[in-house]
Design goal:
Helix content is 40%, strand content 19%. By secondary structure, it is α/β, with parallel strands linked by helices. The protein folds into two domains: 3-124 and 253-322, D-Maltodextrin-Binding Protein, domain 2 (3-Layer(aba) Sandwich), CATH 3.40.190.150; 125-226, Periplasmic binding protein-like II (D-Maltodextrin-Binding Protein, domain 2). α1 packs antiparallel against α9, α2 (43-59) crosses α9 and α4 crosses α11. This is Tripartite tricarboxylate transporter substrate binding protein. Belongs to the UPF0065 (bug) family.
């Protein structure tokens, strides 16, 4: 989407929404709080801080990071959903926005109706990796063939029940024709990765951020397929799941900037316009890619809402088919 089209979309949203008349011409005139549902120092937190540093000068006010970790970021997301819809409290959300709500009726928010999206700013596809010593297969086709020939023999890690790694595993099992894999949920990504490296489990579907360093020639892991339509620019040798014959195996986490539902459309439009300016800068895109995140520059409030809604429906179906539950 080019700049002119983007602005027309934003303008259209502003005109259609009656909330636009409530927007103040001087927005913003005080600091904006960007709530992150994870502790300082993690991938999402670092991205949020880099984003805040770049939008702050364009907005003319400080954008302050407010870390509210806990309960798969639901504490952060619920607090933003309940905040005054004036543009001064935003969420820097991830896929946990959707997954937690699917499994928790008391999440405190609805992923679609509780928010006015600003933009999807990043996406991080998952990658399918195996322990080379325990599962010495060279490609995804061979992996699926081996698992089908030995039902129940192999195990797969996740970062916990209901996490994106767990959902990605269940999607993989479905798309591959109903694989019989033993699910081993760990208490977090570091523990699951260590379990794979040690050979406690055979397979793990996780982001490249943690897997890539251990997949070099002498490393214990082999990365078989990138769960995306296009190869990763930072790991171009890894084929996509589409190339590997499993086109429906598309799984990723995302980064989204959200305002509370009811935020005036003029405020949403201004935040979206500035976000578009920041995300369109080549230097910033390169910086984000260096963190193994795919930057998204062409998102807007309409497409972001559609993106979240479609992801919600996709993972809702997986929840039902795989009978994912916290009980």
């Amino acid at each position: 989407m080019d700049r002119r089209t983007f602005l027309k979309v934003g303008a259209g949203v502003a005109v259609m929404s009656p909330g636009a008349v409530l927007a103040k011409d001087d927005f913003p005139n005080r600091p904006i709080r960007l709530v992150v549902g994870f502790p300082p120092g993690g991938q999402s937190d670092i991205f949020a801080r880099r984003y805040a540093e770049r939008v702050s000068p364009l907005l003319g006010v400080p954008v302050v990071i407010d870390n509210k970790p806990g309960a798969s970021a639901s504490i952060a997301n619920a607090s933003v959903a309940r905040s005054t819809p004036d543009g001064y409290t935003l969420s820097f959300a991830t896929s946990s926005l959707i997954l937690y709500a699917l499994l928790n009726s008391k999440a405190g928010y609805d992923p679609v109706s509780s928010f006015s999206p600003i933009a999807i700013v990043g996406e991080t596809p998952m990658v399918i990796g195996v322990n080379k010593a325990k599962l010495p297969v060279e490609n995804l086709e061979a992996l699926i063939r081996e698992i089908k020939a030995n039902p129940g023999k192999y195990s797969a890690a996740s970062t916990g029940i209901g996490a994106i790694a767990h959902y990605s595993l269940e999607l993989f099992k479905m798309e591959a024709g109903g694989l019989d894999l033993v699910h081993v949920p760990y208490t977090g990504g570091a523990a699951a990765l260590l379990g794979l490296i040690r050979g406690e489990v055979d397979l793990f579907i996780e982001t490249l951020t943690s897997m890539l360093p251990y997949s070099q020639e002498s490393g214990p892991l082999r990365l078989l397929a990138y769960c995306s339509d296009k190869r990763a620019s930072y790991a171009p040798a890894i084929p996509t799941t589409r190339e590997a014959g499993l086109p429906g195996m598309l799984a990723s986490t995302f980064n989204a900037v959200l305002a509370p539902a009811g935020t005036p459309a003029a405020v949403v439009g201004k935040l979206a316009d500035i976000t578009h300016d920041v995300m369109s800068k080549t230097a910033f895109q390169d910086e984000i890619r260096a963190s193994l995140i795919d930057p998204i520059a062409d998102s807007n409030p309409v497409s972001a809402k559609d993106y979240i809604a479609s992801n919600l429906e996709k993972w809702r179906l997986v929840t039902a088919k795989a009978k994912i539950s916290l009980e």
